[in-house]
Structure formats: C-alpha cells, structure tokens
C-alpha cells in the first residue's frame, strides 16, 4: 500500500513536468538540453551501477546487461529509421522529425516509468527504508520524464492533444508498475537484463534525438548555456541517486 500511495506522487510529478513543458514551450531547446543531461545521468549514475551491482550479487559479470544495452540502443535506432523510411519521409529521416518517432520515444519512456513503479514496489518488498529511498529517486526524476515525453512529442510535430495523451500514459505507468508488484516479483537476472536494455533505449533517445534537437538552433550566445544545462541535468540525477542511496 505505501508503494501505491507514493506512486501517486510520481504520477503528479510526471504530470507536472509535462505541463511545465507545454506552458514554456518557447524555451523548449533549453528544457531539452537539461533533460538530455537527465537521461545521461539516469543511464550513468542509476541504471548502469545497478546492472553491475546485480551482476556482483549474482556472482557473474555484467556482460549480459551490457549486451542488452547494445541491443536496446540498436533496436530503438532500427525502429526509428524503419518508421521514417517505411512511410516515405526522406526529409524527416535526416532530421528525425516525424510524429511516429515522437510516439515511439514516448512509449519507451512510459516503459521506463512502468519499471520505475516496479522498482518502487520491489523496494518496499525489501524494506520500508529501501522503498522510501527508491521512491525519492523515482519522484524526483519523473518530473523530468514528463518534460521529456512532452518535449519529444512536440519537437516531432505532434499536437498538444496527442502530447497530453502520451503524458497521461507516462504518468500512469509508475502506478501500474507499483500495482503489478503486488502479484509478482522480478528475478534479479531478468532485472539486470531489463536495466541494460532500457539503458540502451534511453541512451539513444538522449544522444540521437534530444541533444541534436536542443542544439539545432544554438548560436554563439546560447551554445554555452545549452551545454551547461545538460551538465546540470546530469549533476541533478547524480545528487538524487546519492541522496536516495
């Protein structure tokens, strides 16, 4: 029950981040620079250390998780290019701008949010202290998940209505994930593969979609600010993970 209650806070955090992105869309390139750093921070300071820690607990190396990372990266790359080429959008292929690409990216983020909820629920299965620590991390970076979801939808030429629909899906995902843990537990070996796989997804979204778009209109006066915001986003996740741990 505590996991479900705290997943409601994650819902509100995600929703707040998405509405913030809609309200301040004129500053979207600055928002995207920050959220690209957040994704980089999630992969570097949260997901990958967890992969190596699980490998250590299982008495094996983390090569399975790292293979899953490469597969996740390449799978998302392949899906994105298939969407653009299959529908005959050659210009969009070069710019990565197509509504279906935005939806695909948002679905990947929703999948990550679902597993955030699973992690939250599993944390409380270990202990209340562990559950609260996971909840702090999830709630903090779910605000940025909302920013990312709406940002990716808007820059890929989706309507406000469709962006809000994907935001709601992303916001509900942690609740569904936390509720799912009432019925099952995730084997550690599967969890290591999942974390690596989604790290690849998120790494591709941040490096190939968000960062290029954030810098697409950068000039001499703004380039430094954009880079600084990316560093700030990564530093934010570093602090959140350290505090929660």
Key phrases:
245 residues; 9 helices; 0% strand; globular
Report on the structure:
This protein is mostly helical and 245 residues long. The protein has one domain (2-244). Helices cover 85% and strands 0% of the residues. It has nine helices and no strands. The chain is globular. The protein starts with a helix and ends with a helix. Residues 87-95 have low confidence and may be disordered.
Brief overview:
This protein has helices at residues 2-23, 28-57, 63-86, 90-95, 99-126, 128-155, 160-180, 188-214, 223-244. With 245 residues, the chain is an all-alpha fold.
Structural topology:
Elements: H1 2-23, H2 28-57, H3 63-86, H4 90-95, H5 99-126, H6 128-155, H7 160-180, H8 188-214, H9 223-244
Rg value: 17 Å
Mean of the pLDDT scores?
Answer: 81
Number of helices: 9
Count of domains: 1
What structural class do the secondary elements suggest? mainly alpha
Strand content: under 5%
Number of strands: 0
Assembly level:
single chain
Largest sheet report: none
Query: What's the order of the H and E elements?
Result: HHHHHHHHH
Helix content: over 70%
Distance N terminus to C terminus? 22 Å
User: Which of globular, elongated, flat, extended, rod-shaped describes the shape?
Assistant: globular
The residue ranges in which pLDDT falls below 50 over 5 or more consecutive positions are 87-95
